[in-house]
Amino acid sequence: MLKKYPNSKCRILMPPSSRNSGKEARKLGLKTQTLVWYGMLQPTEISRKYKIRVELPLKGSPKAYMEEPKMEMRGGNKPPHIYNYEEGKMCLYLPNSKEWTTFKRLADTLIPWISEWLFFYEIWLLTGEWEGGGKHPGIKKEES
Amino acid sequence: MEQERINKVSDLIESTIHELDLSPDMYKFAYNLYEHLAKWIKEDSPNRFNADAIIYPQGSMVTGTIIRPINGKSACDLDIIYCRFVKKENQSQKELMEEVGNQLKDYVKTFSKYNKEELHIPSIKLEEFPECWTIYYGDYFSMDIVPSLPDPETINRYSIMPEDGICVSSDTIFWQYSNPKGYAKWFKERDNKQILMEQLDKIAKKADVEIEKLPFWQNLTIPSPLRRSIQILKRHRDIKYKGDKAFKPSSLAITTLVAEFYSGEKNIHESLFNLIPKIKEKLQSKQSSRITILDPTCKNTEKFPANNFIKQWEIDNRYETAFIEWFEMAEQDLLNLYSDKNASSGMHKYGELLSENFGSDVVRKVFTEKAKETKEFRDSGLLRTAVSGVLGKVGNEVKPHTFFGSDK
Question: For residue A116, which of B385, B159, B103, B82 has the smallest C-alpha distance?
Fold first, then answer.
């Protein structure tokens, strides 16, 4: 991943009980050993530069967060396709589907999806419409 | 990256202005109505007059600088010269206006009776103005027909297409001299594109009424930096003036100034920012003499002084003040749009800036289209991400996925 995104940093954080990175792991709320990637992404030449954090726990699925700037609302509405607004946690793929599996590289899946999410997020901030498609939990019909 | 950002801003401005171009359908609609009127006049004239005539389009439709007005989704107008080959001495301005007016009244009657439904026009109305007759076709299209005569002094007056000067009835005492064909040729030369005269192929017939075609619409959709720069400034003026017509800077003044100072730049950014200081310098030169925008086709001799396109500035200096104020505002707004201080403010901020200057509906449409295009690219496996995260045609493929989740 570092090869494909040279302007980023990767760290392996040990569980909160460990001596080395325990404090940072606690701050991030990590429970197990986790790979943490920090990088800057800018979806277009006129977009903001976003500081992104991706966490990949030893066992489990990767999670993506918008660290800076903070996620914004539009007219009192939170952006679509997020798990947690305060944490800036984006929702990029269908859970329990084959879209992401442990055999796939983050650099080839999650990172491009984040860029794409940021692109549609900026347009949503302008128009109020999410044009990137997707599904909402509990709603079977896919957005066109 | 900086150049790419500038290109991206230009691309957004271009896309916005493109939305304001006449669509091919609108162009064909205008063309059909123009041709319908011209053919009717051609058939009707021999029964009515002893003199020949020529009909041809002029103005922004010919120079390719037309933009849709801010009110009305598809409204547009077409300016037509109807030049009757009558000697100036034999016809007064009033007679000329009346004769053409009577003919047009009959056209409107016939149209209303026989052609309204066939051409999908809900209503047709004719109105007289000091220099022209206007036919309103419903609420969305109008044609200004300018009655005129050949100018006997045309050879002495003009350096470009001197044989085509005309006299237009401006009031009951004076004739106003004009050279629309020469102006179109001058503009084409400034634009350095093959847009005009080749398309103005003639359907010359027996000594009666000659009709010239409109330039083919496809040529008008090719954006040249000159034409785009004019459209950008005209649209900015329309937005800033909203419905207010008082002292609004005229399209002819903007078109002539921009074309005069355009020096073949290859893109709108270069074109605008090379032009603006030159125009500003001209506008600031008023201390030494009064500002004029002279008809560029004129020889401008002592005996035959050139037409000043901003004659009204002499009558009321509020025209001048309004023009200078608007132009300075346009400069500031364009500088702001391209400024690197907005470099990392996000597409939505650019969208807001563009909306302030060119209208929110059209800008919203542009961004929605860009988003749809990107999604289509993703869905067909063509979208890629560069190392910086920039989406485009290079880098990692964006693999198929489904945005999910909701934090309600």
Answer: B385
